[in-house]
Amino acid sequence: MFWQMEQETLKRAKLEALQLKRLKQTLKRVYDNVPFYKKEFTKCKVKPASLKSLIDIEKFPFTTREDLQANYPDGLLACGREDIVRLHTSSGTTGKPKAVFFTKADLDNSANLIARCLVATGCTKHDILQNMMSYGLFTGGLVMHYGAEKLGMLIIPSAVGNTDRQIMLMKDFGTTTLHLTPSYALYLASHFEAKGINPAKDLKLKRAFMGAEPYTEETRIRLESSMGIEVFNSYGLTEMNGPGVAFECTEKNGMHIWEDNFLVEIVNPETGKQLPDGEYGELVLTTINREGMPIIRYRTRDITAIDPIRCSCGRTHVRIKRIHGRADDMFIIRGVNIYPQQIEQVLMSVNGVGKNYQIVLESSEDMTIKVEFSKGYFDGNLDNLKSLRGTLVEKLKAAILVRPKVELAEPGTLPVSEGKSKRVIDNRRVY
Ligand code: AMP
Ligand code: ZN
């Protein structure tokens, strides 16, 4: 099943021709209307006409998070203020937020991209979506909401938090589909356990869309089996509309990225040079179908790879692999580069580990991993916990080449966040 079958299954040659046409229009639009881009293009000695084919995109300058912040609030608008109907923002860890603006056509387009994603996972207008993402400046709530509405699903705009009420809504209205962050999903799963709810028997859940933060395949497997649902990976970022940029289909083999709306590149994060399909690097995206605020060659800082192999679902748009993490999530302990996902992968594959963890960086030499054991694992026999800790230390050492300290915590005792989780606590002193 497709939402926009013709666009989703375009032959590659036609898709690339459409991309070229839209890219040329976008370059002209920003050159003519956004002083920032005119200046940047001139610095790189390019004009919109310098792009003859898609590979010429490499001649054009990147746009960074800092460029968006420097142009806050509306320096990158490519149309009049009167044509803008909505804005969203995303805050970085430092400085001003990044503001992104949408015209009516942009919003309609983004709702269609979401509807494509939902249909690709098997949703129909008979499904009931409980949207457990925050409604407001964050895109996760509203952007998903309008896409699901376009498809005709019944939406329960429950937003984040109040887990007991969330469960009541699921029961009372027969929710089939959830949209939430993986960290909140882990919390929800432990809440089900604590309250003696068996989701497979007591609820009508079929699937969940999880995104907004990185998580591992091991976490997906755990959540699928503990909740008796299918989990689909959902990738997006405010700068590119929010959710609906890339989504898994029922094959669950990577996320289709809507190439008639986004031009995709993977570059070496250090040199900025393009990398071939299949190699991991930083995802760089250009909006090619946006009126309000087109963005050229946006450095997402997210690390992934393109999988160009045709998917058996029939969609011709390439897939990106699960996000390894952000280029800036990496930390160094004893000279070794470590991504939090490497740690999560180990934790979630070990029996006896519960649903929550935290990585505490103590110094350039030491880190402590605090991890909950699962409910029912500790039966009063301390040897069990000792052996779990030993297993974790050894497996972590093998995966990240550094021996961490591991502290086990009672289920439900580590802090939970309702939005994006804060997994890494950095207590290293900066001199
Ligand atoms: P925001 O603009 O606040 O929605 O944040 C977007 C960022 O969240 C992305 O650049 C990614 O770093 C992260 N993100 C979103 N979806 C996923 C996902 N499915 N897997 C990993 N990271 C994600
Ligand atoms: Zn597919």
Mean pLDDT level: 95
> What's the number of domains?
2
CATH fold description of the largest domain: Rossmann fold
Give the bound compounds: adenosine monophosphate, zinc ion
Number of strands: 21
CATH class of the largest domain: Alpha Beta
Low-pLDDT runs: none
**What can be said about the biggest beta sheet?**
9 strands, mixed
Q: In CATH, what is the homologous superfamily of the largest domain? A: ANL, N-terminal domain
- Structural Rg: 22 Å
Separation of the first and last Cα atoms: 57 Å
Q: Please report the number of helical segments.
A: 12
Shape: globular
Percentage of helical residues? Answer: 25-40%
Notes on the structure:
The protein has helices spanning 5-8, 12-33, 35-43, 65-70, 104-120, 139-151, 163-173, 182-194, 199-202, 217-227, 340-349, 382-400, and strands spanning 84-90, 98-103, 128-131, 154-156, 177-180, 207-211, 230-237, 242-248, 255-257, 262-267, 281-287, 298-304, 306-307, 319-320, 325-326, 331-333, 336-338, 353-361, 367-373, 405-409, 424-426. The longest helix is centred in the N-terminal third of the chain and has 22 residues, at 12-33. Helices cover 32% and strands 24% of the residues. The protein folds into two domains: 1-328, Rossmann fold (3-Layer(aba) Sandwich), CATH 3.40.50.12780; 331-426, GMP Synthetase, Chain A, domain 3 (2-Layer Sandwich). Helix 5 packs across helix 6 (139-151) and helix 10 runs parallel beside helix 11 (340-349). It has twelve helices and 21 strands. Strand 16 and strand 17 form a beta hairpin. The chain is of the alpha/beta class. It starts with a helix and ends in a 5-residue tail after the last strand. The protein has a nine-stranded mixed sheet, sandwiched between helices. Bound molecules: adenosine monophosphate (AMP) and zinc ion.
